[in-house]
Amino acid sequence: MAAEIHSRPQSSRPVLLSKIEGHQDAVTAALLIPKEDGVITASEDRTIRVWLKRDSGQYWPSIYHTMASPCSAMTYHHDSRRIFVGQDNGAVMEFHVSEDFNKMNFIKTYPAHQNRVSAIIFSVTAEWVISTGHDKGVSWMCTRSGNMLGRHSFTSWASCLQYDFDTQYAFVGDYSGQITLLKLEQSTCSVITTLKGHEGSIACLWWDPVQRLLFSGASDNSIIMWDIGGRKGRTLLLQGHHDRVQSLCYLQLTRQLVSCSSDGGIAVWNMDVSREEAPQWLESDSCQKCEQPFFWNIKQMWDTKTLGLRQHHCRKCGQAVCGKCSSKRSSYPVMGFEFQVRVCDSCYESIKDEDRTSLATFHEGKHNISHMSMDVARGLMVTCGTDRVVKIWDMTPVVGCSLATGFSPR
Questions:
Q1: pLDDT at position 231, please?
Q2: Of 152, 170, 160, 148, whose CA–CA distance to 117 is shortest?
Q3: Alpha carbon distance, N-terminus to C-terminus of the chain
Q4: Whole-model pTM?
Q5: Are 337 and 355 a contacting pair, CB within 8 Å?
Q6: Are 127 and 143 in contact (CB under 8 A)?
Q7: Helix, strand, or coil here: 405?
Q8: 285, 297 in Cβ contact below 8 A?
Q9: What is the pLDDT of residues 283-301, one digit of tens each?
Q10: How deeply is 270 buried, as exposed, middle or buried, from its count of CB atoms within 10 A (0-12, 13-18, 19+)?
Q11: Residue 380 and residue 376: Cα distance in Å, rounded?
Q12: Interval 192-247: pLDDT, tens
């Protein structure tokens, strides 16, 4: 069922501790059980499984439960040992796990959506289960009565969800590339604002309630940090992945962001540095360096008897430039560009060698990653994906060994 990996720890790299195999289809969610050597998984093969580590070092399923529909999302509340599982048919099912994690009892079904559930959050204080789905909606239901309390619809599939437990603000990402901030009430909600910045569908969100930072990952391979608490509209762009960013986790204590992409890439971003905002791209009818017309500037082309040029943009200053004036490429990590991007000639000359020093580390997970979660107190990470494999990693060589201090789970 599961293999224990005996790999020699290497400096500054995640260490693969265990690999769990046994699901017959894509694993959509995997969660580490706090203070236990255990993992809860949900899969498209319609099963929920609880894996416990045996004396042999291998993980074996202590619970194997088959659902009526493929499992698409899951959340687990450890203090009450309640599991909420979203399904492809739109329903959310609640279970209670025994103290020894060998038995799971069905509690109730919530008719939350008309289509696939994409994300679930449980608020024990409000007694709400909040979920998003491919029926283009977010719903919140009462866990005592099982009744629908409220629902809000969007123009496209709702793909991911984060929630501030103190203020009852919900952040919902969708397939149009927008993030909507909602204030949830007992039976209604109000739209606070809409965040736009990605050029692809939002795949994952992470909310840090302490620094009031929102992180979003999308199919445009990029991450954006939104400074919600600063109230000045400050955003930071992070580009280092080569495929869709699938999962995020921000570590408050070390001020690091862990991100995973569908090609197996694992990145750890240093957010404890002074970073620069990427500029807005400027628009112009001619190159802002050599003043040659762009191809749509018919009047200047006619007046100067020259052919129009294609418009590009310098990633450092944002100016509209032609290809000749932006022939150089450079990384610029302080602005989030970890790989080489187009810059104009003058900006290229201004970038020093020390400015190209990376502010992130990149690692290979060696499997397709569709979901990641961390036990920050122990420095552990679990990844899963469409290859039906679950991997457990020791992240302390990458993110530091003193994570247990000052951590309090939400």
A1: 67
A2: 160
A3: 31
A4: 0.89
A5: no
A6: yes
A7: coil
A8: yes
A9: 898 998 998 888 887 877 7
A10: middle
A11: 6
A12: 999 999 999 999 999 999 999 999 999 999 999 999 987 677 899 999 999 999 99
